[in-house]
Amino acid sequence: QVQLVESGGGLVxxxxxxxLSCAASGFTLDYYAIGWFRQAPGKEREGVSCISSxxxxxxxxxxxxxxxxxxxxxxxxxxxxxxxxLKPEDTAVYYCAADRAPLTVQTMxxxxxxDYWGQGTQVTVSS
Length: 127
Description:
By secondary structure, the chain is mostly beta strands. The protein has one helix and eleven strands; from the N terminus they run E-E-E-E-E-E-E-E-E-H-E-E. The chain is globular, with a radius of gyration of 13 Å.
């Protein structure tokens, strides 16, 4: 069964850190660009960060630049999102997605039409 599985979400205090993981099952991530997206209640889905399959190029939304870092370990078929200096406005369900041939990582993050979506993991930033 082909699927993406997110993990690592939870409750964290403002200023804290979390690392999200996106693991592939049933296929290999090697040839896919991977993106992290989030959706808070009552808000539109937002592209947070995306990473290419080939040259490792990355894209970050302005809201997370300098705080979040995306990385991938193809040997483990896993992509990570390290989130530091978390703020209450980062609270959302975080989803990962895999796209075999996006135009660019920026395009993938801003106009996603991926091949696969994960089910999401909840991140709550609150004191």
